[in-house]
């Protein structure tokens, strides 16, 4: 099919958005700091909705406080709510860190959160167990949940990282990945025998074992000491090449800013930043491993050589089932870029690539890295699910790969959906889905192959027993 | 009890204890992780099930993303309500105004979907940036020839309850704008949202009695039915928290009387049928109701026996949105031998809490607008075996090893009516009797 002939209807309105709002991303990052409680400065609803949305995926308690704006705070400013809120949170939770994200509302009325924090600290000077404060400006009219996420990562690093004598240690900004993927990366760091800081680490705080008593602040999170030590690292690895560049597009008032945390460490503490796409697939993982080898001076452990070998073996065993299939891939920009890199290795054409993100560089990233054939691919930046649905009706993909919100499209088309990323609201185990490195790719690959096989088997007139 | 913030102490009581009047209807305390949502949420949940209306959220994207197809309100026909439309405001709209974007959005969406009406929700920042939503709506109403109703629901302007009121006012604008021939024994059902098809169970009961349901507001709702709602003889109101305001307005303007009912549990469900028969002063209807109740109960009671035997003596904690529902739950739990030890709601009022005080056993904890810290402490203290609540309470219960029953918008099993009571018993049984708890006890 000639993709160039397809007309894309353009709507002014958003119809079933494929993005979430910025404080959600920031809250996620705050959950990845040890002893931290997130607080959203704005009205109650935003915090409650965000909690609810995250609970349906992580299936974990999700305490996120709100400064709970009233009409009065909206007119006269929210500083009273701000102070009262922090006091109350401290009384109930005694956090070590307070992660504060703003909202559309508090930004619109011009709340100056850094100033409010400074004032609070000032007033409570004598208080010996004052928490640390981390802040992210997250008006959603400037960007998506991913912009909020990276803004909070940057905010935490800026306020906590300390410069010091360099030591053999690696910073890993792993981006918005699943708790299972984080656990995999931590294991790998251990296997390389290197000191590291992985941030944000919500692998435990958002995927906890069962408790006897309610834990006000769940265990886990990157320890504060380790975030501090980021300033002493020998190198930084940062997954994702779009990162928070989207919020630059959204901004008209303040055009500067928008460096990633890795860039910031490089600019300020002269730590070399190795920016790369998320390691999904063999080539991207190889690149990550090579960087690890050169940074640590250690060879890739035997375990990973075997994993890689098994993955190649699996690719070969199943290559015919996937070759030439057309996929619709959607989700956050950095995720779809990584998925495209992987799909290219196994011969699946990403016929539709869609993201709610609007960095303006998605297409460039895909083409300049030769991850796609522009002739065979429709790229939809700033897309919503209804536009995707309309496009899918014309292009008729064989499979959908993305979060659970695309299920209704898969259902209508009668094709399988392989659930990846966030959110997975209609299945259990979302936090345990693996995507990264050789092992994660293996799981993802098997799921894709099996989805296609199941489809074929169910549509076959014969209930066959062998493939 | 250091986990209870000083300012919240008056919102908590114990049956038989010293605090008699619970402080309620207050805004949530800053920094308390309230389980409540906002004004917008209140209006949205009430209006959302109107299936042939266009629902568009004017504001930044989050409020729309988080409410996309969020409730299990089923429709027997159109499903326009399941799409999430938003103006997705950006910084330039915030600076220069978003009214034009709203106009264009309405224009294209009304043309595309041909809805019977449009509801335009304005969220928090719209009021602040000063968009004249009213006049955009008026203009579109003229141009497109359908009602375009502004729902001014900025989240900060009160609580979820205020949102209910705003929704009632939006519906009220539709009521009385269409006259259809309406049969003799006609009622409107207010406050059932057709979660998991519950409304259809009720329709079946009323039909068997010979009663015509004129408009269901808003479960499986249709704009034209709502417009004709004033022609019914009676409003039957469930979930009074959300819909009583509409009933009162309809009483005043159209002289349609109303009844408060609950469809949950045997007693309340049966009363809901008897009360309607009584209202129409018809022996015929009453006989039909008696027959129906007899049949249903005759089937249900024996079916409940094994559940009651297994569950007898177990303890439950209830924390739900509306207090009226909580009251029905206490009774339904008794029916299967269970005792309520904690009961709370997000939006109960003084009368509700009084009723609860009278109904519940001594030492039951009563709480208004609670938070995870308190709830987890209460269930621990009272040694509850089961928690009944919504999505946000589920992980709290599970994490500390408690059974859970979803009594909120997302459930997929109907819990209303007689069959609903059986489903409820089954669900409680499944969660309380599962062998998995041995690993956490
Ligand atoms: S509080 Fe305001 S901005 Fe937040 S969800 Fe509610 S209406 Fe939207
Ligand atoms: S107002 Fe902004 S921060 Fe709040 S829910 Fe809506 S988009 Fe998100």
Key phrases:
heterodimer; A: 467 residues; alpha/beta; Rossmann fold; 2 domains; five-stranded parallel sheet; four-stranded parallel sheet; 18 helices; 45% helix; 13% strand; disordered N terminus; B: 441 residues; six-stranded mixed sheet; 17 helices; binds iron/sulfur cluster
Quick one: how many beta strands of chain B? 14
In the CATH hierarchy, what is the class of the largest domain in chain B?
A: Alpha Beta
Order of strands, main sheet of chain B, comes to: 1-12-11-10-13-14
The parts of chain B where pLDDT drops under 50 for at least 5 residues are none
Number of extended strands of chain A: 14
Q: Termini of chain B, distance in Å?
A: 24 Å
* CATH topology call of the largest domain in chain B: Rossmann fold
Beta-strand percent range of chain A? 5-15%
Chain oligomer state: heterodimer
CATH architecture of the largest domain in chain B: 3-Layer(aba) Sandwich
Name the chain pair whose interface involves the most residues.
A-B, 79 and 75 residues
The biggest beta sheet of chain B reads:
6 strands, mixed
The backbone outline of chain B, from C-alpha atoms, is globular
The CATH superfamily of the largest domain in chain B bears the name: Nitrogenase molybdenum iron protein domain
Q: Identify the CATH class of the largest domain in chain A.
A: Alpha Beta
* Tally of discrete structural domains of chain B: 3
Mean pLDDT of chain B: 91
């Amino acid at each position: 099919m000639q993709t160039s002939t397809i007309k894309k209807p353009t709507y002014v309105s958003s119809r079933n958005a494929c993005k979430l709002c910025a404080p959600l991303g920031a809250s996620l990052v705050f959950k990845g700091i040890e002893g931290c409680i997130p607080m959203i400065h704005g009205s109650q609803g935003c915090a409650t909705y965000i909690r609810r949305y995250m609970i349906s995926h992580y299936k974990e308690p999700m305490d996120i406080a709100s400064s709970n704006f009233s009409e009065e705070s909206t007119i006269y400013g929210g500083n009273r709510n701000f102070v009262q809120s922090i006091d109350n949170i401290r009384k109930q939770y005694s956090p070590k860190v307070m992660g504060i994200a703003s909202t559309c509302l508090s930004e619109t009325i011009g709340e100056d959160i850094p100033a409010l924090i400074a004032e609070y600290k000032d007033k409570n000077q004598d208080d010996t167990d004052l928490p640390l404060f981390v802040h992210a400006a997250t008006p959603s009219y400037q960007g998506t949940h991913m912009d909020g996420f990276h803004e909070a990562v940057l905010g935490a690093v800026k306020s906590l990282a300390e410069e010091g004598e360099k030591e053999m240690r690696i910073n890993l900004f792993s981006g918005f990945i699943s708790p299972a993927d984080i656990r995999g990366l931590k294991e790998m760091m251990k296997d390389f025998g290197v000191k590291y800081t992985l941030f944000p680490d919500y692998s435990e705080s958002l995927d906890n074992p069962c408790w006897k008593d309610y834990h006000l602040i769940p265990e886990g999170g990157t320890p504060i000491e380790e975030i501090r030590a980021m300033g002493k690292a020998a190198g930084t690895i940062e997954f994702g090449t779009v990162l928070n560049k989207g919020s630059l597009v959204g901004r008209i008032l303040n055009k500067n800013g928008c460096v990633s945390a890795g860039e910031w460490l490089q600019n300020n503490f002269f730590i070399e930043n190795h920016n790369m796409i998320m390691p999904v697939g063999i080539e991207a993982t190889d690149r990550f491993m090579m960087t690890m080898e050169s940074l640590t001076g250690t060879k890739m452990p035997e375990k990973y050589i075997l994993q890689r070998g098994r993955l190649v073996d699996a690719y070969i065993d199943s290559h015919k089932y996937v070759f030439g299939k057309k996929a619709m891939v959607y989700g956050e920009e950095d995720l779809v870029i990584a998925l495209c890199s992987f799909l290219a290795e196994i011969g699946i054409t990403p016929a539709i690539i869609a993201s709610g993100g609007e960095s303006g560089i998605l297409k460039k990233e895909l083409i300049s890295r030769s991850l796609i054939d522009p002739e065979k691919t429709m790229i939809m930046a700033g897309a919503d699910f209804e536009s995707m649905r309309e496009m899918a009706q014309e292009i008729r993909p064989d499979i959908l790969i993305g979060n659970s919100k695309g299920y209704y499209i898969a259902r209508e088309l009668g094709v399988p959906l392989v659930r990846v990323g966030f959110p997975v609201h209609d299945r259990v185990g979302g936090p345990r889905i693996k995507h990264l490195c050789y092992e994660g790719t293996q799981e993802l690959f098997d799921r894709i192959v099996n989805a296609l096989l199941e489809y074929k088997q169910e549509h076959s007139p014969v209930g066959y027993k062998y493939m | 009890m250091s986990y209870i913030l000083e300012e919240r102490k008056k919102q908590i009581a114990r049956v038989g204890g010293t605090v008699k009047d619970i402080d309620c209807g207050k805004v949530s305390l800053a920094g308390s992780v309230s389980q409540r949502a906002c004004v917008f949420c209140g209006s949205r949940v009430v209006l959302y099930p109107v299936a042939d209306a266009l629902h568009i959220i004017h504001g930044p994207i989050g409020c729309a993303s988080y409410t996309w197809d969020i409730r299990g309100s089923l429709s027997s026909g159109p499903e326009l309500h399941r799409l999430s439309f938003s103006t997705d405001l950006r910084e330039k709209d915030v600076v220069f105004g978003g009214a034009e974007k709203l106009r264009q959005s309405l224009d294209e969406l009304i043309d595309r979907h041909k809805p019977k009406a449009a509801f335009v929700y304005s969220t928090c920042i719209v009021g602040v940036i000063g968009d004249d939503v009213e006049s955009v709506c008026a203009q579109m109403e003229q141009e497109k020839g359908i009602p375009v109703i502004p729902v001014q629901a900025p989240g900060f302007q009160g609580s979820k309850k205020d949102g209910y009121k705003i929704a009632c006012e939006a519906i009220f604008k539709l009521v009385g704008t269409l006259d259809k021939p309406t049969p003799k024994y006609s009622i409107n059902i207010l406050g059932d949202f057709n979660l998991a098809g519950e409304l259809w169970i009720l329709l079946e009961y009323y039909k068997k009695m010979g009663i015509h349901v004129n408009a269901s507001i808003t479960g499986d709702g249709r704009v034209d039915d709502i417009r004709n709602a004033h022609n019914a003889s009676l409003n039957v109101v469930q979930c009074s928290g959300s819909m009583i305001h509409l009933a009162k307005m309809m009483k005043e303007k159209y002289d349609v009387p109303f009844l408060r009912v609950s469809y949950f549990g045997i007693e309340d469900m049966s009363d809901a049928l008897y009360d309607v028969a009584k209202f129409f002063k018809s022996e015929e209807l009453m006989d039909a109701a008696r027959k129906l109740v007899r049949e249903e109960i005759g089937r249900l009671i024996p079916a409940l026996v094994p559940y009651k035997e297994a569950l007898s003596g177990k303890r439950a904690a209830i924390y739900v949105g509306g207090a009226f529902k909580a009251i029905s739950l206490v009774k339904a739990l008794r029916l299967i031998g269970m005792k309520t030890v904690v009961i709370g709601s997000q939006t109960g009022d003084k009368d509700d809490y009084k009723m609860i005080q009278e109904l519940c056993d001594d030492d039951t904890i009563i709480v208004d607008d609670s938070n995870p810290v308190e709830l987890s402490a209460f269930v621990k203290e009272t040694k509850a075996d089961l928690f009944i609540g919504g999505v946000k309470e589920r992980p709290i219960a599970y994490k500390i090893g408690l059974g859970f029953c979803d009594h909120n918008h997302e459930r997929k099993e109907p819990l209303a009516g007689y069959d609903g009571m059986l489903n409820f018993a089954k669900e409680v049984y499944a969660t309380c009797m599962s062998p998995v708890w041995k690993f956490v006890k």
